[in-house]
Amino acid sequence: MCVHASGGRALAERQPLGLTNEPIPRPPWQSALPLSPIKVGPEGIIDPFRIHDRASSSREEATARWSLSLALLLMVAVGVLLTIGLLDFDSRVRHGQQQEALAQQKARTQELASELGTTLRGADQLMDTLAVLAGHFSEKHVLEELMRRLLASAPESAVYGLGVWFEPGQLVPGVRYMGPYVHRDVARRGGPPVLTYEWSTPAYDYFQQSWYQQARTSGGRIVISEPYVEEDQAYETLSRAVFDDRGQLRGVATVDLFLSQFKDMILEANHSPSESLYVASPAGALLAHPQEERLLAWARARGRSVRCLCELTLVDLRTWEHEQGLDRGRHLSEVSVPRVGWRVFASTDEGVLFKAVRRQWGLVVALCVVLWGGLGASGLAMARSERTRSLMRTLAERQRQEEERQRLLAQVRQRSAEFQAILEGMVDAVIVTDSVGVITLANRAALTLFGRAAHEGIRLDTVYPHHRPRGLDGQDIPFDALPMVRSLRGEQVCDTELIITRPESPQQLVLRLNSAPIRDESGRVVAAVSVARDITQAIELERLQGDFARMAAHELKTPLTVMKSFAQLARRTETPSSALCRLLEGICRGVDRMDRLVRTLLDASQLQSGQLRFEKEEVELCALVDAAIARTAANHPHNPIHLQRLPKTWVFGDRARLLQALTELLDNAARYSPVGEGVEVALTLEGDEVEISIYDKGIGIPTEQRERVFERFYRAHAGTPHDRGGLGLGLFLARGIVLQHGGRLELDSREGVGTRVRLCLPRLPERQPSAERTSCETVSPRA
């Protein structure tokens, strides 16, 4: 029952109880007292003061009665006013409860419509992918393979088949009917897709079909057809026009969906016996209904041969409800599913829907009875007043919350605009994908770098076959090894370098990628973000630097050799003076130093480019360490080197290169040690490895610079009082040589205390009778 506000106004227009249009009689004390003449008795004249006393008493009684009547009248007036206000307030509250119940029913309907729209969105994306890619292929087998892969990637319970229906001569010149169709074999669940051309015949003439004509005139929008039945199975068809690169129409692409999945969603949504949720097409065909079996039985009993629910309409449903008496006392709401035009209905029993409204009306009636009974009228009025104040406070609080929400929403919009501006202004390319690998965000740099492959809505697995990235070694990177795919599995990928080919041109680019997963509050991976930077110019600059160093080294070797040869020839002349001999010896030492620098530059350049050659053989390590110590001691006579020996240990490697690496490490240890301080060298066996430990008590290396000491041309003490000169290539060469021998080089240093370097190499279990020599080239250290 619903009481409108007009009822309250009609009640207010009535006259309160006891208030009429008749004149109100005057109170007794206002009536004129009857005047009688003064009687004279035997005792004489009556005392007039006695008569005045009786008049005063009558006036007091009349005043009391009038006061009582006025109090009763005021009580009745207050009761009427309270009743009117209570009924009016109740009308407003019940109206609000009724609107809230209707809003909740509408929300349940919208929620179901949203779920249906979400389910259809995957089919839309599949349709978009098929329509976009089909417009670029001109070979049948490529198109057929694409359709098979797309159908295999689609949910088996949702998508039945895919088709591309070409305009005359668009795929095969001179052929009018050309429509490859790939569908699932329903009889063999999980089997391979079935490719057929059986509908590409004049008998079917797909050019005249409604779905084909609607898609041709839709301008590229997705069109959904009315449901149809084949072999007792209901389907829906999505269709969209296919255009080539010049924008000319090539045909129409279709996606056929099973309607059974939507029926399951409707059955799950119908969890209350007092409410029925069902879906109909734009033309009124029933797509899903919780009473499907009863509807089909009713239609068949009337002589209609129906196979599926979609052959019935809303008119049939209304007729069935009328015959079953289900159209009385129910409220119906309707919501449209976006983009497809499906209509979602909710039919709810009004007794359940407006249960709170009826409960409110009964409460008001009880309150009125209690009020007019005179029991607790004041307490009820105060409670009602307090409830009103609470409601006002609630409304004020809601208003404040709404204002706060609007303020926060404005801040979010501002932050979103700032974030968007930052993304668009970034030089690095930023791409975000959802949990299934669909691109949801790409900034301007990403679109410039990757082209159409980075557009929103594109799946990574559909782009990968056409744009396969390669590693720096030239090998294709598998799809599962891509940084974005690894992040979707929860991995943090840092500084991964790969090679791509630009979609618009054959230019190859070298990218450095960082990728990370995006998690929700529960820690589940819901998306991934990848940041890519084009380092092609940096790699090219690094190559040019290496080429320059190599060419400079080659160009310097010849004049240095000439200078040393002339100096040596001058020393062999007859009776050279002592001064001339010293000058010639200085020239030879300078040339030798420059020759070492040139060789170091050349070795570093070849190591960086992967061209440094190694001649490996069995090498006795203790003798090699002795040779390196002898070289170092000759250059640093004031820093003794102490060696802890081992029995003869053999390794497989290049004797000259290993000697070069050991000499560089010992030279560094002695160079940065105080005069008189020794260097400790120890050889130890660790399983299948031999470790060479070099320890000095020198100046050490600052903590923030330890990670860079193995970089080319980096000197930790450059520009400081501890600068000892050099090119900064010694540790770089030593580490590269050790890595090419399957070993490792580790450094531990404390500033002001000293440095320990550990060189580990795989050792041979026993010496072979003959030395096997091999020639190999290193790979780039960056690889």
From TrEMBL:
Residues 391-418 form a coiled coil. It comes from the Bacteria. GO terms for molecular function: ATP binding; phosphorelay response regulator activity; phosphorelay sensor kinase activity; protein kinase activator activity. It is found in: Membrane. GO terms for cellular component: membrane. Keywords: ATP-binding, Coiled coil, Kinase, Membrane, Nucleotide-binding, Phosphoprotein, Transferase, Transmembrane, Transmembrane helix, Two-component regulatory system. Residues 415-456 form the PAS domain. It is a multi-pass membrane protein. GO terms for biological process: osmosensory signaling via phosphorelay pathway. It holds the Pfam family PAS_4. The keyword Iron does not apply. Residues 551-765 form the Histidine kinase domain. Its main location: membrane. It catalyses: ATP + protein L-histidine = ADP + protein N-phospho-L-histidine. PROSITE patterns: HIS_KIN, PAC, PAS. Residues 494-547 form the PAC domain. Its EC number is 2.7.13.3. The chain crosses the membrane at residues 66-87, 361-383. NCBIfam families: sensory_box (TIGR00229). This is histidine kinase. It comes from Cystobacter ferrugineus.
